[in-house]
Amino acid sequence: MHIKVKYFGQIAEVTKKEEESLEFSGQLISELLETLHSKYQILKITDFKVAQNQELVSFETKLTGQDIALLPPFAGG
Predict the structure, then answer these.
(1) Which of the chain's termini has less CB crowding within 10 Å, N or C?
(2) Rounded Cα distance, 38 and 74, in Å
(3) DSSP string across 46-72
(4) How many whole angstroms from its chain centre is CA 71?
């Protein structure tokens, strides 16, 4: 499956990318994150949320969309 991963805020800063495309054969968001953790070790200790097709999802959600976003923590106010 062809996946587009978008990075925002501090995530974009640590990956030095705003987005990238990759081929991925896993089935869960957590499996995709393992792949990204191996590529960007700093993500293991970085707090973020994941959105799939513009909807926040848990790490154990089945990968169904091709647009994934890693979002930094939200500030309230």
Answers:
(1) C
(2) 25
(3) ---EEEETTEEE-TTSB---SEEEEEP
(4) 8
Give the predicted TM-score (pTM) of the model: 0.90
Per the document, the length of the chain is: 77
40 close to 22: Cβ distance less than 8 angstroms: no
How far is the C-alpha of 40 from the C-alpha of 42, rounded, in Å?
5
**pLDDT in single tens digits along all 77 residues of the chain:** 899 999 999 999 999 999 999 999 999 999 999 999 999 999 999 999 999 999 999 999 999 988 999 999 876 65
Q: What is the DSSP letter of 75?
A: P
Neighbours of 41 (CB within 10 A): 10
Q: Which CATH class is domain 2-71?
A: alpha beta
Written as six digits, the tokens of 54 are: 């513009």
Output the CA angle 38-43-46, nearest 5 degrees.
160
